[in-house]
Amino acid sequence: MDQTSPNQISPLDHNLALSQSRKYSFSVREITEGELEEVCRIAAQAFLDDAITNFFAGLEEFPNSLSTPGGLRIHHIYSFVVKSCFYIGGRVVVVTASDATTLAKNKSGEKIAGVACWAPPGKRMNVFNIPLTIRCGGLKVLKEVGMSGFKRIILEFMSLTEKTHSKTFRNSLYPGSEVRRKQEKLTPNDAWYLALVMTVKEFEGNGCLSLLMREAYGHAHSLGSTAPFMLESSTPRSRDRYGHLGFEAAPED
Ligand SMILES: CC(C)(COP(=O)(O)OP(=O)(O)OC[C@H]1O[C@@H](n2cnc3c(N)ncnc32)[C@H](O)[C@@H]1OP(=O)(O)O)[C@@H](O)C(=O)NCCC(=O)NCCS
């Protein structure tokens, strides 16, 4: 678990969210409900070869496409994550790429290059909220992964991460509360939580992750939020980049 405070990092000016790379122009925006299905598909695709995702899905081999049975299972899992974030009132943000020579473009002339799903402070998915769970495709996930998958995801993975979050936040005070002379205890639910982030393979290494993270810091700053940011890293590749973007690793036991 890592956390950072947006105040430690200079926020990205929203008007400057347009960034240039050698080949593409990137910009960052929140999605509309009509884009959810496309975003779910793009997000799932990025995790086909992710070891933790395969553990969630109970797969022994990485599926090579979303249209295989294993790929479909991963698609359902990530649809649930993206939709949960959207329907609890979170932020599903995309970085889009445009280029005159981009071959595959969607109708609006831009291509989704990366996705971030943020659960704001105080807003979290509760799987026991049955209507919401059904709306987000929770029953499809349960049907795909079965009770053993439910145990792996909720009882093994999530309970472990929750323990780490709680331990990390123990004795933490809300940033700025010392200044106000009222020491408010900080809990993991007070943080901006990154439920999912990914960059489409062809755009990796172009700063898409940085754009998504800095947009989030800028958004929090624009709201006057001093809440920390929290996420889990599943690979050394992402862990090193989060470190570069201001996150600190949770202390080991
Ligand atoms: C991990 C992932 C999101 C990285 O995305 P990306 O768009 O290629 O990352 P970026 O190019 O934006 O790099 C982010 C920053 O890290 C820096 N960076 C690059 N290599 C680095 C390294 N080895 N160590 C530290 N920082 C590094 C970059 O320079 C950039 O910073 P800058 O904007 O200040 O220059 C992407 O590889 C991915 O989607 N992987 C599959 C899904 C996944 O693992 N998601 C994360 C789950 S926890």
UniProtKB/TrEMBL annotation:
InterPro entries: Acyl_CoA_acyltransferase, Trichothecene_AcTrans. Signal peptide: none annotated. It comes from Dendrothele bispora (strain CBS 962.96). This is N-acetyltransferase domain-containing protein. SUPFAM superfamilies: Acyl-CoA N-acyltransferases (Nat). Gene3D superfamilies: 3.40.630.30.
